[in-house]
Design a protein that fits this description.
2 copies of one chain form a homodimer. Chain A is mainly alpha-helical and 451 residues long. Chain A has 3 domains: 2-134, MgtE N-terminal domain-like (MgtE N-terminal fold), CATH 1.25.60.10; 145-246, CBS-domain (Roll); 278-449, Tetracycline Repressor, domain 2 (Orthogonal Bundle). Helix content of chain A is 65%, strand content 6%. Chain A is built from 21 helices and 6 strands. Chain A has a 3-stranded mixed sheet. In chain A, strands 4-5-6 form a 3-stranded mixed sheet. In chain A, a hairpin with a 5-residue loop joins strand 2 (173-176) and strand 3 (182-186). In chain A, helix 5 (58-67) packs across helix 7 (82-91). Chain A is elongated and about 90 Å long.
Chain lengths: 451, 451
């Protein structure tokens, strides 16, 4: 929707560039939101992107920098001098600033930092660079409005006026004690509705949820989602307030997490997008296909063992059912594993393993019996021998039960061992279930039909 | 993590209930966050849940109600009288209130509304009930702080004090004209840093992003994510400010959307969770399994046509490769469709269909050739006839190309026709690709080996 608009803007921009109508172009660009401008720079040829970038003022370009695709940003930063980058960084909030500096090559990093205007700002950024990008510290910004519990509302408003000049959006006012330890929050509502002489100590809300600076980002996302938080204070080991995380950064964590699981379930290594280069796409897709190929070659071996029954007019039909058996084993496995992976992600796998085992077996048994009945009907229509149909039907039930158990327990075991359970969905479970399925199918048939 | 804590709390609570130590229990419950209390009520037996619920004061119970699982809430609401429900509703913000009332049976709905204390609040709730739950109107709340552009900051602060008494969290101050038409936003920063006599007209920010009340919720989620918004004003057809949507409601939309795609890709109809009843789980899983079964029976028909080659010692080996071919066709199809579905969801499917076709064919050709080489190596090791191996290898390449084209274009076509493209992932694409794959495999082998 929005994209269509930007798509129409690009030809107009290119026209203005080639006609050298800078003034007209500037006017047009000034109308656009920095997020849309970033989208345009990602789309347009690089030469035009640089041209536009140089034409914009640094307040807008710094915002654009944070929104660009990684590769466009990398290319633009390469063209800019350390001085120019420092000017962009000066305009940014500490968390965005640290993210951009972290992407620079080592030598350039130090030069850029040394060129920053505001020493306090530079200190905060360097401080943030210490944290792992997947921790609360890596997500947080240092900008926050902080008041001391001994102040009156009057002092507080005066101080907020001073602090607010450096902060774009005031989300929450935090209350700390003399040792900078987080005590609570002060709501705008209570400030507006209480006498200005009241001490903060008496009106602040002391039930504040916070996270430790080294908390994992997915855990932070869970806390913010669970308690519907828009901003979350971050404290150090001693409980001192060191920063805050806003929900917009967490939205990205939630989305990335969901997409990662989706891609793994679909047999893509992470981070493949429709617009990546062919080489990137091959790297994302080929490994799982090779895994699938080896699985398929495994079934070739199993079936070779049963080559002999191809001479038997009744038994040879078993081979016709191998893709069906493999498909059912694969589908059941993916269903079971997906439910478990999602349950683990949302912390809703409750009850004992034993209950889960029982539930999964009953479920597969019922599904298996319904599908087996359909196979029997099919066998009657095709006028197969009833014992043959029964053998196929019963081995189908067994395959379904075993496939669902594999699908259920492999992710649970991985999770207990600290491995991402989402790895056990998709091609991994399909491939292993294909082999197990075909193996079980032939052996049960052998047992029942006695060949 | 948090859940473990609540798990330990439950036995303690049950003990206090059976010992009738209400005072002690009340103290313990008062310490807990309403989100945790909701989690406990979802977990504990229903009798204890009701006991706890009646013990808590209505400010806390109303917050708990909005956080409960749908079925726990339904059971609790059944036990409460219309008067009691109305008291809970009185405490809630309009969007949560409307959501709960919408869940009540028709007769109870009207009685509850008639019992509400605050007429303005009741009007707002009834107003919200008109909107589709998957639209901006269905997500928004009516609580907002609104000032007129002609006011001075002084008047504005006075009015905000008055309005804020009814509002828990002041997110943003909206500026409207005499006709209630949304003009812009007033930042706390500009209020804090400008003289109190300045007219709002001169200091408000007029570049405000808003959505129409009938906008689809997924579109709203995209806008809020794209522009990193924490709160988004909603306007009617004339541009009049009618409500606001906060990001915490959108986080749920984003998560639900991602989970829906994931579940469809895994062959689950929507909304199946690990803790659903067996019957719900069967309903979620069986339809796709039946689809897979019919696909498998389709391959039985195709293979029956080639029954004759089982007499030929060289050719009969083709049958050993059918699960491999089906698996590769399925995996490739799921990979391609997942990339397209995700690209469509994120609006990053760019360029013409023709380019996409070309890219997908080159990609599959390269992947196919690599996998075909592996097949040739395998054939050499197994001492297969070279023509046989070549036939398998070349049909594998063809199957991969066609499977990836099906995986790419089916979701694109569904999307163009307004059908959710995620339907075309998972079992749907695997099943159809299984059949196509086996069909192509045997016919190309026939062509090459001349049987």
């Amino acid at each position: 929707m929005q994209f269509e608009t930007n798509k129409n803007t690009i030809p107009k921009i290119k026209q203005l560039i080639s006609a050298k109508k800078d003034l007209h172009l500037s006017e047009m660009l000034a109308e656009l939101h920095h997020v849309d401008l970033a989208e345009i720079l990602d789309e347009i040829d690089f030469e035009s992107a640089i041209y536009i970038f140089k034409l914009l003022d640094s307040e807008k370009t710094s915002d654009i920098l944070t929104e660009l695709d990684d590769d466009t940003r990398e290319r633009i930063l390469k063209v800019l001098s350390a001085k120019e980058i420092a000017e962009e960084i000066d305009e940014l909030e500490t968390d965005d600033a640290a993210d951009i500096i972290a992407e620079l090559p080592e030598e350039k990093k130090e030069i850029v930092i040394s060129q920053l205007d505001d020493v306090e700002h530079a200190k905060d950024i360097v401080d943030l660079l210490r944290y792992d990008e997947h921790s609360a510290g890596g997500l947080m910004g240092k900008e926050l409005v902080k008041v001391y519990e001994d102040w009156s509302i009057f002092t507080c408003v005066r101080e907020m006026r001073r602090q607010a000049e450096n902060i774009d959006k005031v989300h929450t006012v935090y209350v700390v004690d003399d040792h900078e330890i987080l005590k609570g929050i002060l709501s705008l509502k209570s400030m507006l509705t209480t006498s200005t002489k009241a001490p903060i100590k008496e009106i602040y809300n002391d039930s504040v949820i916070s996270v430790k600076v080294d908390e994992d980002d997915e855990e932070v996302a869970k806390v913010m989602q669970k308690y519907d938080l828009i901003v979350l204070p971050v404290v150090d080991e001693m409980g001192r307030l060191v920063g805050k995380i806003t929900i917009d950064d967490i939205v990205d964590v939630i989305k990335d997490e969901a997409e990662k699981d989706y891609q793994l379930a679909a047999g893509l290594t992470e981070d493949v997008e429709a617009d990546d280069t062919i080489f990137q796409l091959i790297r994302g897709r080929l490994p799982w296909l090779i895994l699938g190929l080896f699985g398929g070659l495994g079934s070739v071996f199993i079936m070779q063992d049963f080559e002999g029954i191809m001479q038997n007019d009744a038994l040879k039909k078993l081979f016709f059912f191998t893709p069906l058996i493999a498909a059912m084993a694969g589908n059941v496995g993916v269903q079971s594993s997906a439910i478990v992976v999602q349950g683990l992600a949302n912390d809703i796998i409750k009850g004992s393993l034993w209950n889960r085992l029982l539930k999964e077996i009953s479920l597969s048994l019922i599904n298996g019996i319904i599908l087996a009945l359909l196979i029997l009907v099919f066998g009657q229509i095709m006028q197969y021998d009833i014992y043959f149909s029964l053998a196929v039907a019963i081995s189908l039930i067994s395959v379904i039960i075993i496939a669902s158990l594999i699908g259920t327990f492999v992710p649970i075991i991985l999770d207990k061992r600290g491995i991402d359970p989402a790895l056990a969905t998709g091609p991994f479970i399909t491939t292993s279930n294909d082999i197990f399925g075909i193996f079980i199918f032939f052996y049960i048939a052998k047992l029942m039909l006695g060949f």
